């Protein structure tokens, strides 16, 4: 349909229109906009592979609408503002909708909503209009027909008049009832509309799989849902686990002599009515308000929770609640006048990848960072995006000069969803990973089973600084006041050189730097002094041995009396400890074999830092949990893992490093993996949720 040249030209045209359409002659602007929007629609609806971010598309659409409003004589019947997008592929038979399936009008802020409310009340001829507000699910719309109580047809929206008949795929959606007690209510036929969606977790797993198979990841759950709904193999559709949420009754026929079922008077009641029959509707999520101010307040409140929802929601839909009023208000050829979408702040944008920089971390791992043309996304300007490691660069096949789709969702750091390969000119450069450390020039190394290239020079300046920052961090030696910024500064000035030098800081030099008051110096000195008596496990963690996290550090600490004992531990002996596998054992043995590390430990010892396990040899705490063993797995949401472990230990319980016959309790958070599986297989472990764990702790007092 479009050649690659067309694609490149139209993309450039779209970008150009977004920034420079102001001075254009209206007729020319309209032609260009129509062309660009038609192209974006085709990519989006037919190929399920958008080239523009939604807000870019919406901005073009608005521009077209605005230009046409000012020049009504230039509006043509084929304008995207006059119809629903082209959404029909040739894969499925087409069917007509009983009632046109329209799009929604969009609003982006309180002003837009106020305008809409004013128009609404005018059209409805009422001072007060009741509004029903519900989530705008980001998926693919479907129309379902139930005849004599049974699901008889499922269709996509298509162009709004005709859709694709995807009945067989719709039947694979487990949350949709194949039959319902409609006949008993006198309903012979009903058309219900809703959104086919994909759970965020399912989407993530699906994209991982695609990447593993060498395919580009999909841009968002919406494209995944609409793509899946149009796969030709129903078994595959079933496997992908689609869900559906129904939000509208568009048509119904009653059996002769039946009166309208109670509930079919307002939107709110109709969705409750469906819900009570077993249909998945937003019955629990929707809210009714009588004033637009309440609607506006609810919209901004709801936007805050967007990340905690199971499904992607890109806004809220506000609907006039009364069916009689809806009828009076009618629709345009594009959208009903009685409903409007309030769209959340955009999270995606397209930009150009300018170059790649390489950062060196504490363990020497090299992280490629893409520098992109700055773009605003969700309220901040993004110009740097991590590419994580070489594998990710290769999997996504991003190149310098590529146009890339960037996403920034909530607290998640921005990432590149995909390069827009259809826009390549041929001048893009494959990203060449450096062979040498960008800081110290040492040759980089990569273990076959690892994703990251590393600088293994222990004296590499960035690593030295990062190691100190880790050493003082809260979960390690907890030296407050001496944070990352100070360490960086002292290191640059030669006041700090390595971890032991923290204990021999020349405070006169610090004073000479300026900017440090007596109080802040005293605070730092005290915190450093206190760190000398920290427990051995914190010291081991603070040393920054690769693969040694807080839990492994505890395991190691509790196996010894003095840190130097580890000099003699070989890999076999280390593996005999709970939760320590060959990878960790090799790293630990290697660390303690190195002369420079032993030298560092000597210096810490000389500075008075505790190397002894003071807890060992003491009677274990006698508490309600004495003799009981615990392990935490998955992402905990109610408490920090280290705090929960401390609670167990305070009551005499022990933390194990892995699942074995010795384990009594496994506490599972979100996304628990192999440990949970193993515990289930063993059958002897008590598996607790976080809530159940808290109850257990409370019950033992
Ligand atoms: N990035 C691109 O290149 C590109 C191209 C075309 C379209 N788009 C995006 O798609 C939008 C247009 O698509 P659209 O016509 O589907 O409009 P839309 O997504 O803005 O809103 C309409 C749709 O919302 C859905 N919806 C979800 N929850 C709903 C609820 N509770 N009640 C009613 N409807 C609900 C329905 O499927 C309905 O058709 C554009 O605004 C743009 O954001 C993007
Ligand atoms: Zn280096």
Overview of the molecule:
It is globular, with a radius of gyration of 31 Å. It folds into five domains: 4-82, Helix Hairpins, CATH 1.10.287; 94-343, D-amino Acid Aminotransferase, Chain A, domain 1 (2-Layer Sandwich), CATH 3.30.470; 348-432, Nucleic acid-binding proteins (OB fold (Dihydrolipoamide Acetyltransferase, E2P)); 461-607, 5' to 3' exonuclease, C-terminal subdomain (DNA polymerase, domain 1); 629-699, BRCT domain (Rossmann fold). The protein contains 24 helices and 24 strands. The longest helix is centred in the first third of the chain and has 21 residues, at 26-46. The strands form seven sheets. A five-stranded mixed sheet has the order 2-11-10-3-9. It is α+β, with helices and mostly antiparallel strands and 701 residues long. 37% of the residues lie in helices and 19% in strands. The protein binds nicotinamide-adenine-dinucleotide and zinc ion (ZN). Residues 40-41, 43-44, 50, 52-54, 57-58, 103-104, 106, 134, 136-137, 141, 157, 195, 247, 317, 341 line the site of nicotinamide-adenine-dinucleotide. This is DNA ligase.
């Amino acid at each position: 349909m479009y050649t690659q040249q067309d694609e490149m030209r139209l993309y450039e045209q779209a970008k150009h229109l977004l920034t420079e359409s102001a001075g254009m002659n209206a007729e020319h602007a309209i032609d260009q906009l129509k062309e660009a929007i038609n192209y974006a629609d085709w990519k989006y609806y037919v190929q399920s592979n958008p080239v523009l971010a939604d807000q870019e598309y919406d901005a073009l659409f608005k521009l077209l609408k605005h230009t046409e409003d000012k020049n009504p004589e230039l509006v043509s019947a084929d304008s995207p503002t006059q119809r629903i997008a082209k959404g029909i592929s040739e894969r499925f038979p087409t069917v007509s909708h009983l009632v046109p399936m329209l799009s929604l009008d969009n609003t982006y802020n309180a002003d837009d909503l106020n305008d809409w409310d004013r128009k609404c009340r005018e059209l409805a001829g009422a001072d007060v209009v009741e509004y029903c507000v519900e989530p705008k699910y980001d998926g693919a719309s479907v129309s379902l027909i139930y005849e004599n109580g049974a699901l008889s047809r499922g269709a996509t929206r298509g162009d709004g008049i005709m859709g694709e008949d995807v009945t067989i795929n719709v039947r694979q959606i487990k949350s949709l009832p194949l039959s319902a007690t409609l006949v008993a209510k006198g309903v012979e036929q009903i058309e219900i509309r809703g959104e086919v969606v994909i759970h965020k977790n399912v989407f993530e797993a699906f994209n991982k799989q695609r990447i593993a198979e060498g395919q580009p990841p999909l841009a968002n759950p919406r494209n995944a849902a609409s793509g899946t709904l149009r796969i030709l193999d129903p078994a595959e559709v079933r496997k992908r686990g689609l869900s559906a949420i129904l939000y509208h009754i568009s048509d119904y026929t009653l059996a002769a002599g039946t009166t309208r079922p109670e509930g079919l008077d307002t939107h709110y009641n109709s969705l409750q009515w469906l819900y009570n029959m077993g249909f998945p509707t937003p019955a629990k999520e929707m809210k009714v308000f009588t004033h637009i101010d309440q609607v506006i307040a609810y919209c901004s409140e709801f936007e805050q929770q967007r990340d905690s929802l199971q499904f992607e929601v890109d806004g809220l839909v506000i609907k006039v609640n009364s069916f009689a009023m809806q009828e009076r208000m009618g629709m345009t050829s594009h959208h009903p006048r009685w409903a409007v979408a309030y769209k959340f702040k955009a999270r995606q944008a397209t930009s150009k990848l300018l170059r790649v920089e390489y950062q060196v971390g504490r363990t020497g791992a090299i992280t490629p960072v893409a520098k992109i043309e700055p773009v605003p996304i969700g309220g901040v300007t993004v110009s740097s995006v991590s590419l994580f490691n070489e594998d990710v660069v290769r999997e996504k096949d991003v190149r310098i000069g590529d146009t890339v789709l960037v996403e920034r969702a909530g607290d998640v750091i921005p990432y590149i969803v995909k390069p827009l390969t259809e826009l390549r000119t041929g001048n893009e450069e494959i990203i060449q990973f450096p062979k040498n450390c960008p800081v110290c020039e040492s040759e980089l190394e990569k273990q076959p089973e690892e994703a990251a290239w590393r600088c293994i020079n222990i004296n590499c300046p960035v690593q030295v600084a990062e190691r100190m920052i880790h050493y003082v961090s809260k979960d390690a030696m907890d030296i407050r006041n001496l944070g990352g910024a100070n360490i960086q500064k002292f290191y640059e000035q030669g006041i700090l050189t390595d971890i032991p030098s923290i204990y021999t800081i020349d405070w006169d030099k610090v004073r000479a730097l300026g900017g440090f008051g007596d109080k802040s110096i005293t605070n730092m000195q005290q915190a450093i002094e206190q760190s000398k008596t920290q427990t051995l496990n914190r010291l081991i963690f603070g040393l920054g041995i690769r693969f040694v996290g807080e839990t492994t550090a505890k395991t190691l600490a509790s196996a010894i009396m003095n840190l130097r004992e580890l000099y003699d531990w070989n890999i076999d002996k280390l593996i005999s400890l709970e939760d320590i596998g060959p990878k960790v054992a090799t790293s630990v043995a290697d660390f303690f074999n190195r002369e420079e590390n032993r030298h560092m430990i000597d210096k810490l010892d000389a500075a008075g830092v505790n190397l002894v396990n003071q807890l060992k040899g003491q009677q274990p705490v006698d508490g309600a949990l004495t003799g009981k063993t615990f392990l935490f797995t998955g992402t905990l949401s109610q408490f920090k893992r280290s705090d929960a472990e401390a609670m167990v230990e305070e009551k005499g319980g022990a933390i194990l490093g892995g699942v074995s016959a010795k384990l009594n309790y496994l506490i599972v958070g979100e996304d628990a993996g192999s440990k949970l599986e193993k515990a289930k297989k063993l059958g002897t472990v008590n598996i607790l949720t976080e809530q159940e764990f808290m109850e257990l702790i409370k019950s033992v007092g």
